[in-house]
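Sequence in, structure out.
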Amino acid sequence: MQHQRGRIDLTGRDYTAIYALSDIHGSYDEMVAAERRIVEDARGLPGRKLLMYLGDYVDRGPRSSDVLAHLCAPPPEGFDRYALCGNHDDAFLRFLDDPDANIHWLEFGALPTLLSYGIDARHVLFDLGYSIGELRDLTLKAMPPAHVDLLRSLAVAVTLGSTLFVHAGIQPGVGLGEQTDEDLMWIREPFLSEGPQLPLLVIHGHTPGSHPVFGLSRIGIDTAVSMGGTLTILKIANGRQMILPPI
């Protein structure tokens, strides 16, 4: 059984700007371009900046391994960077820990993730006749240990004053200490309709749309980059939230 993931409180930290992006899904080139855009926007701002990644680094897109490698490397100069766990990242790790019980991950956008490590899962399973356990073993052999360590270390929430960053959302009206990891990584309704029902602004991804959603005490920024959309960058500075226009 997996341990509960961490929840990080940054309240009291002083950041001149916060930038958030979510649901990379193997879209490495778009992620790197977004980080360059963020660094350019922050040029000239004094003090530390915060870069928040809201989860779902793997599956669907072609370069999941490169995305994880990027998140293992240091953040841009002048930035603190925190990466939260998405439901896809958690499903990948669960497959690595117990492949037989988590075989459904293979139908969850996983094949491009495995391919990014040089593993053609269909060939391995159907042509070579490997078992699910043997596929997992091949995957672990192909993955840098730092990538597994990263997946294991990802927190599920970051709080900064009255702003909460999570992958999916929260159960409305329920204190953060009572929220399960599953709530924070998977919820849609009733959160999307009702908002947090707490004195919080929740910044989240998970539910894709054609544009960012400024809802009831929540901002959803998953704009489906791996499915032909864009990678939205939310900027918070001077008490205001805005979407950063692309270069």
